[in-house]
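Reopening: DNA-binding transcriptional regulator, LysR family still failing for me.
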Amino acid sequence: MPSLRALQCFTAVAEHDTVTAAAVHLGITQPALSHQITALERELGVAVLDRQQRGSRLTPAGRALLPYALTCVDAEHAFTEQARRVAGLRIGELRVCCAQSVTAGLLPRVLRHWQRRHPDVTIFVSEFDSADRVAAAVRAGDADLGVAPTPSAWDGRTTTLGWEEMVVAMAVNDPLASSASVPLTRLADRGLVHFTSGHALSGWVDATFAAAGLHSRVVVRTGQTSAAALLAATGIGPALVPLTALPPRYPGVVRPLRPKRGRDIVALTATDDPLTMTFVADLVANGVPTLPRTRTA
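Support: Ran it again with your exact input. Result attached.
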């Protein structure tokens, strides 16, 4: 297969008519250029230049092959330029995989920032209902970056983004709405909005009650974290949800647990790709929402 350098020399001679002018254009010596042309002709088994005293002309074979040589040279130029743009974070694609509960609370501000600073970088967001599924997606190469609570098993890079508080979401007229904070014992005799058995938060809620020697009573289950908070706001019953799962204008009331409970939110990455790590740095700078900023009374 002809080398790219040989094709560059061939197209340069076709453009500048002489080997001398083509060598100056490419920044190489005339003998070096002639060597590349000779090697190309040997590889192809046909002469592409008719060398004369006053310059070089393309042979019939050279004229036939020139458009294809130009396509190769142009493609290399486009590839190099695109690579420079990617390296400079001017263009690219980033696949972000999130735990359901953190998408609404963590990503919007960072995505708005990226849209302004990196308008040609496309970000694809996918969601899973557990941290382990997020970790599996990054491990399999289906995502460049995972954002989730700490998974049970992960051997890649982990960057802590902050501590996510678990709060009690409820209707405005709920009896507990007048309290500044809610002890877990006050929820034990209430019918709760809970999560389906396959949802990661289902295990967290059950384990939290069990550790306190309590048992939760369930009135409805949902597989969507944000839906649990919205159902609680209608008066069906309180819900224990991550603060990051609440919309900015939550229609209900949010109160902290007493004592406070929560979990670390981390970014999971399998490579040190500049685009990925820049996004992680922005997530760290943005931080995890705190209750005063999200609370609606």
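Residues 96 and 145 are 5 Å apart (CA to CA). If you still see a failure, please send the error message rather than a screenshot.
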